[in-house]
Amino acid sequence: MAELGYSEEYQTYLDSLTKETLLKILENAYTEVFVTDADDRYVYTNPACMRHYGLTPEQMKNMNLQSELRPERWKISLSGRVKKSKKVIIAENKYYAMEQNVVTISVPILDEDGNVEMIVSTTQDPINSYDFSIKNEVKTIVSEEEDSGEIIGSSKAIKRCLSILQKVSKTDINVLILGESGTGKSFLSKYVHTNSLRRDKPFISINCSAIPETLLESELFGYVPHAFTGASNKGKEGLIKIANGGTLFLDEIGELSLPMQVKILDVIENKRFIPVGSTTPEHADIRIITATNKDLYQLVQDNKFREDLYWRLNSIKTTLPPLRERPEDIISLANYFLNVFNEKYKTNKYFSKKVPPLLCGYHWPGNIRQLRNLVERLVILSDGKVIEDYDFQRFTSEEESGSKRVVNSDYESVMEEAERKLVENSYLFYKSSRKMAEALNISQSKAYRLIRKYVYDEKED
Question: For the Sigma-54 factor interaction domain, which residue ranges apply (predicted)?
Fold first, then answer.
């Protein structure tokens, strides 16, 4: 025990704490705690390890840190550094198997001769990955529904997209975000606002396809008292006025009718709007961000979208890639959602080692929205603590069955294609014929032959 100079009274209190009490504290700590001995053998790990590694404490028991975890899973090995320096080391590290960045603080425990007896490490997610309930003891930063984690990822595609938005966020230039449904366009619009000079002003979002055209005008521009039958005798402020000084996000902008496009163009060009039933223009100091999953330029060619409005919206354009084009982000997103729903439903589930390759190989037609929904369904409906590969396959096959796909291939071709995808995705994830063989429960020689057949010549393990 560290020499802290406790009083006799407090030392007596510590000695009175039961093993059950101390174990309950450790087992329920959100921060991962793991202890290794001088030979890098695990002495203890609490259940928080499942969040970071997808492994239970039982699976990690008796594992050798250097020979079994370090070579293919960790970017930095801290054990040797701690034993050499005999000092506390704090490091941001990366666990490759789960694509997790973590912060680890490793503390050496010395014996009477000054040699390292144990290393006690605590590991947690980087601070910027937390969904804070309170910041500076003032206010809630973001709700669970708002923070869907849709821009989590380290792929080149998402980094390129964020790089553009970071540069333009400090300006008032209009931004057009393109991308398939479910890729996180609305989240990116909020990201731009949060990083802009208007961050302390309102952020107002409206889905142009979700409101009938007859109501959309009054929702956006408001109306004066008795402007139409059924209108309030007090009138109503529109979203543009409510957003004054801040940001207005128009989602699914491609759904606007041509007459409504004219009025939006007037807002952009002249910073003004006219409430329904009025003839007096009102000033509008807003930044406009738009998004669509349609090809706006093609709509212009088809005379369904005004060309002048297109070029005003298209000052800065960025495309949010679909999830299938950034498979390296899938595991990070899946783990994020797993943590969210474990907390929401008071569970402690984790993916088996066979699930990550399946996640990476699936085509995700519904993108991040589909991934989020699937993980929530797995947390609720899977049996036991471990989410297995057959759980994933069962739920994705249920969704696929509704698509009524027509297969124009014979049995052999279909089976060969399934085998090819399984091998490609497994090797992409494990990067080793030995690890892949263990996961698929086949011999390493067979795994090697499959890799040669479907991927490429693998270097000797």
Answer: 151-380
d(CA 323, CA 335): 15
Q: What confidence tens digit (pLDDT) does each residue in 61-84 have?
A: 766 655 555 545 556 667 888 888
**Closest C-alpha among 377, 338, 376 to residue 356:** 338
Per-domain residue ranges of the chain = 16-129, 156-320, 325-454
**DSSP per position, 235-259:** -EE-HHHHTTTSEEEEETGGG--HH
To the question of domain 325-454 being in CATH 1.10.8.60, the answer is yes
pTM, to two decimals: 0.58
Rounded distance, CA 307 to CA 314, Å? 10
Beta strand residue intervals within 310-365, DSSP E: 316-319, 350-351
> What does the pLDDT look like over 337-372, one tens digit per residue?
998 899 889 988 989 888 888 888 888 999 999 999
Residue 326 CA to residue 156 CA, distance in Å, equals 8
The answer for residues whose C-beta is within 8 angstroms of residue 88's C-beta and 6 or more apart is: 82, 105, 106, 107, 108
